[in-house]
Amino acid sequence: MAESTFFRSEEMSLIQLYIPAEVAQPTVSELGELGLVQFRDLNPDVNAFQRAFVGEIRRFDEMERQLRFFTSQIEKAEIPVRTTLTNSYSSRARSRQELDDLEERLSEHENRLLQMNNSHETMQRRYLELTELKHVLRETSDFFQEAASHQTDIRNSFDEPSAPLLDDLEAGPSDAQGSGLQLGNVTGVIPRNKMQTFERILWRSLRGNLYMNTAEIDEPVIDPSTDVVVEKNVFIIFAHGREILAKIKKIAESLGATLYPIDSSADRRREALLDVVRHIEEFNSVLVNTTQTRRQELMRISENLVAWMIIVKKEKATYHTMNHFNYDINRKCLIAEGWCPTNEINTIQTALRGVTERSGSMVPSILNELKTHKEPPTYHKTNKFTAGFQGIVDAYGMAKYREVNPGLFTVISFPFLFAVMFGDVGHGILVLLAGLYLCLNERKLAHVDGEMFQMVFGGRYIVLLMGAFSIFTGMMYNDIFSRTLPWFQTGWEFHVPDNHKAGNVIIAQPNGHTYPFGIDYAWHGTENYLLFTNSYKMKMSIILGVIHMSFGICMVYQNAKFYRKPIDIIGGFIPQMMFMQCLFGYLTLMILYKWTVNWFETDAAGDKLYPGQGFVQGLLVLIALICIPWMLFLKPYYLKWEHGKARAMGYHQPSEHNVRVSTDSTRSEEAAGAVVAEEVEGEHEFDFGEELIHQVIHTIDFCLGCISNTASYLRLWALSLAHAQLSEVLWGMTLGKAWGMPLPLDWAFSGALRAFMTIFMFSMWFSLTIFILVGMEGLSAFLHALRLHWVEFNSKFYIGTGYAFQPFSFAAVLSEKDS
């Protein structure tokens, strides 16, 4: 049994379970609580509607629908939901009787709630009608009085049907006055936003043969179907003729108006108004009682809603998983297969025995470990600290089973490379404080919604380390908000002559001291500071890049040794390492050699760094050229030779890539008790041409990649330079101007002005530092560090063709949000 480490993924085993049918549900539920088994679907060709437990899943779908209905009603009523549950209550499996009782209880709650909702909506609609009728009766008395005042303007229009109902002011009174013309009316309520459209349609369709008056309803009117406040107007339309009145009614109803018949008698309207007011008061008391009863029902539901949701989700997931199983011939037990960590097999067996004892079953569940040729899933056991770094690696590609996990090295290399580009003590402290806040308040912040925030919160320990490493590199650069940190005694002295003139260059002289840590602060502010730091950071980037990539090539050896592929060491690791070191390793040594030489004491007039430099460099280039055909041809021809040798011995395929479990009698003792999985993955036939093309592509990619990837590490220098220069420019444009501005002679005024400018410029400097130098520059450095790990480092050894271990886990089921 392999030891659990973060260097490689966990060792996995394919297990087979024989579960008695009477304890299948509690057994699978217990495995869901453990979250250690990824079950395989043993019925891939069976339709989802033809599986064994489709009836149970439909039953829990219906219960889940009811719970979603309860949730929407509770949220609508703004009732708090109880979320505290004991572990024993939420974790244990439910019996069939408990599930039947729960289903019946949910149905009763739903029926009562639907009945109350329908009754409440019916009463609300009736209350709305009475409210609108009350406003109509109140406003129409004024409308009738206003219409009566225009009675002298009304005339008959039998001879001219297109003539307007009311005379224009220029035409004077009509000849038909006094004929006793009786006008009909249409009254009702219409939404205010449709009022203008309503008027235009009436005017154009009736050609002005109407008299209309409107008034706004000040009281808020709530639509019972949507619970939205709707603004409405009361209207009354006078016209003559049945056809015209019918036409008006159709137009009004088409625009969503509600019509109310109103008697022309003032006394009857007054009596109707009193009757409506009395009914409204009665409906008010009934509505209050109904609302209170409905709220009490919802409060009773809310006390157990979370518990019910957990039960239903768990049971539904349990039966969905059981649909992946097969029945035996007698249909007395279920057969399941799945992957689990080898180290956790004893834990699973203990859980199975516990379920058997609790249920009182006489037949225990049986666990067999299968031998298979299938590639297991990749499972890296992480904690809250390493999960973020592992997520960076998994985003590039899931590691092949048991290959070297780059996540282990990413814990250190990622924040370090970020800090090389972001190096500043002040900015690092701000990032560190942000990471500390996220880490110290992780329990409270874990429940905060928001995709962007959760992404940052998941990498809180990455942020913490990035801040800590940025402080370290900022001390190496001797940089805090573009200012210096005079920690130790400088190694340079500036001797200013007596006859020194402004603008003349002063050359510093070494005083014998060596600055013990980082860059000497005496370099800051000098004319050749940028030239010095450019050279220093550029060469440092090359050195870090060569070390990083060389370490990645070393992982090729680790993978080849683990998978027992000596050809990958001889035809891969050795020529790749020699090619890398002959060209770029030598370059790194020359940079370090030049740094160790005191050029003040050495005559550097020649173009040779050491005797025999030309011969050594020519030899290294020749070795690098030899490594190219070495990488290109050795592995394909070796595989071809091995394939021919295997065929000559009677084997169809060589055993280079797959370890097989033999059932030969000569190895019967070794295979005793081992169950061989029946399904064997298909193996493609060896093709020398395909293998040679693959190796050509890999060789070209490696050789050209060594050059381009080494140059790619120069982004460490470029971003570090840009970050330092932006910080210096921001300081000079804000606080530098505030403290360096000329002041007037009035000391009191100059002091107040300087204080005001300092406060104003400091606020600008701090805000721009947070948003630009820490936020935008930090994001840029993060993305570049991500690229260096994904492309430059991982491409040297990382296969990344695996698939993730996704066990059946109730924790994962409950964390999924409803779609």
Automatic annotation (TrEMBL):
PANTHER family: V-TYPE PROTON ATPASE SUBUNIT A (PTHR11629:SF63), VACUOLAR PROTON ATPASES (PTHR11629)
GO biological process: vacuolar acidification
Signal sequence region: none
Topology in the lipid bilayer: Multi-pass membrane protein
Function in brief: Essential component of the vacuolar proton pump (V-ATPase), a multimeric enzyme that catalyzes the translocation of protons across the membranes. Required for assembly and activity of the V-ATPase.
GO molecular function list: ATPase binding; proton-transporting ATPase activity, rotational mechanism
Residue ranges of coiled coil: 92-126
Subcellular localization, as worded in the UniProt entry: Membrane
InterPro entries: V-ATPase_116kDa_su (IPR002490), V-type_ATPase_116kDa_su_euka (IPR026028)
Native organism taxonomy: Eukaryota, Fungi, Fungi incertae sedis, Mucoromycota, Mortierellomycotina
Protein name: V-type proton ATPase subunit a
Predominant place of localization: membrane
GO cellular component: fungal-type vacuole membrane; vacuolar proton-transporting V-type ATPase, V0 domain
Bilayer-crossing regions: 416-440, 461-478, 538-557, 569-595, 615-634, 755-776
Family, similarity comment: Belongs to the V-ATPase 116 kDa subunit family.
